[in-house]
Amino acid sequence: MENKDYNVLLYYCYAQIEDPEAYREEHHLFCIENNIRGRIIVSPEGLNGTVSGTEKDCQKYMDYVHSDPRFAKTEFKIDTHAGHAFAKIHVRVKPEIVHSSLRHLDPNVRTGKHLEPEEFKALKDQDDVVILDVRSNYEHELGRFKNAITLDIDNFRDFPEKVKELEHFKNKKVLTYCTGGIKCEKASAFLLEQGFDDVYQLHGGIIKYGMEAGGEDFEGKCYVFDNRIAVDVNKVNPKVISKCHVCGTESDRMVNCANPVCNEHLPICEKCGWELEGACSVECKDHPEKRPYDGTGYYQKNTNGYNPYKGLIRKQDKEKTKNIIHE
């Protein structure tokens, strides 16, 4: 049996950060010093991250986040893994913790009613309910709740434009869901702003639903933003709903096209994956910039000049100076 002595943590917290740049530096240095890897966004509106580490290191990381009063309410979704789910640590400052084009909305002021997984499960099949997937196409094509309404969007920032297609559901209970809950905070708030009166959100998203409610009626796999790419959710009535982009056979094996210019997120079966060397087409296979394929279909993102050790030298110099003074 595979030894899963590492954890993967998925979390977010909407909280005001006065100096995101200063906090980014502090936060990423803590990650370096405690062997935490992953992708973290620091924004004036809060934190959003997926990180990995040993169980002990992840506990230290959660304690570190919770020790700051601004983030004391942060809820972590904890999964087990055989090793690090990331190759590096990136902590970046961005305008929003999820790119939504809805910066004027503060979920701490108004958002949809939070439903715990068992509450969501009990409510989702009622006649006056609509289940709304607020994720992007490549996510809901791999897996989604049975009977869910999906939107044709390539990015969450396109969500507001699509809401006008939902006008006929204004007399229904609208249950929104996403991977970990973060997109629903803004999506449900926007629905309320647009005149939808009875709006809910799955607290903790698909990941928490799988952990606490067995994942019943979630069909397919859940796309995740680390080197696992896709994870199982449903332990009750699992079903594969996606098909190989190349040959059309049933496949929930998600890859990023090996051609970085394309980089589409697509289900491709193992046979076609090897035949096309991780590409989604012959054209992409023959592209001069095609990345080497190792069978996973996961590629570390370009760092774009990001230096995770920025500030570390300065901190070490400060410590040396302090020691000299005390000596």
Automatic annotation (TrEMBL):
Gene3D superfamilies linked: 3.30.70.100, Rhodanese-like domain (3.40.250.10)
Pfam families attached to this UniProt entry: Rhodanese, Rhodanese_C, UPF0176_N
Superkingdom to which the source organism belongs: Bacteria
Biological processes, Gene Ontology terms: tRNA modification
Reaction it catalyzes: uridine(34) in tRNA + AH2 + O2 = 5-hydroxyuridine(34) in tRNA + A + H2O
EC number: 1.14.-.-
UniProt GO molecular function: oxidoreductase activity, acting on paired donors, with incorporation or reduction of molecular oxygen
UniProt-listed CDD domains: RHOD_YceA (cd01518)
Signal peptide: none
Domain Rhodanese: from-to ranges: 125-218
Keyword tRNA processing: yes
Keywords: Oxidoreductase, tRNA processing
Enzyme class, first EC level, given as a word: oxidoreductase
Family to which the UniProt record says this protein belongs: Belongs to the TrhO family.
Function, as annotated: Catalyzes oxygen-dependent 5-hydroxyuridine (ho5U) modification at position 34 in tRNAs.
Protein name: tRNA uridine(34) hydroxylase
